[in-house]
Write a structure and sequence with these properties.
503 residues; alpha+beta; FAD/NAD(P)-binding domain; D-Amino Acid Oxidase, Chain A, domain 2; Helicase, Ruva Protein, domain 3; ten-stranded mixed sheet; eight-stranded mixed sheet; 31% helix
Amino acid sequence: MRDLLVIGGGINGAGIARDAAGRGLTVTLCEKDDLAAHTSSASTKLVHGGLRYLETYEFRLVAESLREREVLLKAAPHIVWPLRFVLPHDRNLRPRWMLRLGLFLYDRIGGRRTLPGSHGVDLRKAPHRAILKDRLTRGFEYSDCWIEDSRMVVLAAMDARELGAEILTRTECIGLERTADGWIAALRRPDGSERVVEARAVVNAAGPWVDGIAGLGLGRGTPARLRLVKGSHIIVPRLYQGSHAYIFQQEDGRIVFAIPYEHDFTLIGTTDELFEGDPGTVAISPEERAYLREAVGGYFRTAIAEEDIVSTYAGVRPLYDDHADSNSTVTRDYVFELDADDGAAPILSIYGGKITTFRKLAEHALEKLSDHLPMREAWTKDAPLPGGDMADFEAFLKRAGERHSWLPPKLLRRLCRAYGTRIDRVIGTADGMDRLGEHFGGDLYEAELRYLAREEFAQSAEDVLWRRSKLGLHLPDAAASRIEAWFAAHRTEGAAAEAEKSP
């Protein structure tokens, strides 16, 4: 019998599996699709304190988020890095004193930090005067961070596996029965066969499907109420030069970000719409596309036409319903529902949360289970994630370039950003471009595919092009079919090798 079954392979599930495995628990995680296949790959890709949460007085969440921002910067500097945001002041919206006060608090809540603080900025000067409309003359600049969201999920799952956890992707929980001393879960594998896992406790981290899993195990929902809120983004060719992002206030109270993305693009988002239906089929609506175009058009000199949109994505946030009037002001904090009355085997259901606080959420989740499962102390605060054991990214990049001087600078930087100190596991013994194997276009080679299949749970072109990387934006359409063919051949080779081992 396992100690813990975690249902859900998004950031919360992966983070809890990692923390639990490091505390000496035996852990199985199952995810019905790929890791980060839904909400956790559809974020605005920011590690941030939540400046706008100050307006709804969520000071605890902001303070915790800002502390966790520092932890993640240290734990994974290859996929988390500082980003400066410019907030133009629109005199028709929030008054300037309110923005200044909010940033004053933002700079001080959460304790000591390494990022530079906020200050005023003259938007009539370069580079902003060539980007923003003439009516915008003053604003503010402050710090937060970028994160490769789906890669963070994969790194947490990798760390969990290396600590002894069993990670089962494309494996759906289709049955959950409570017994006198634990749980019996029926799991359906990708080939349709079933497997039974017994566990002393269950964590329900199924995101938008959390109520469904609770119903599967309990025959009913939990006392918490789930509000599904859709957030959508558009990607357009790069709108401006510079490494800074913009944050734009909207008349409806929302905010919209414009962020440099994948060197050649600008990422714009997000929306907040109440969602009903199957979260697995979520997609941006024509109204959301228009909303985001118009939101940026109200600030930038350059208008965005519908045909400028090169890609979109949408996700459903499984938020705890605190009865807020607006979908944009409903809490982003997390809430736990523990069902373990009268000594029954525990099931812990998770509502809400954000990628910034996933590590702390995992600690709190295991605290909830500490009376039911013997475990060691919390340990993740000072522990690097796979590839993150470096003091300074740029210094590491320089050393990697000296070791692999044959790698083109662009490819070297991308590999160092994606894999950090594990770049040598990707490259292997290669000492020239011709030793990296089949070329799939752009700077994607077979050596990287082999690593992703072996180490990072990748099984399809979509896994590689849109979650383990964003190469889907850069490679020709034909690359996807070639990658799928590679995975099919790889699976055939693996099946043949297993058959040879059989007696």
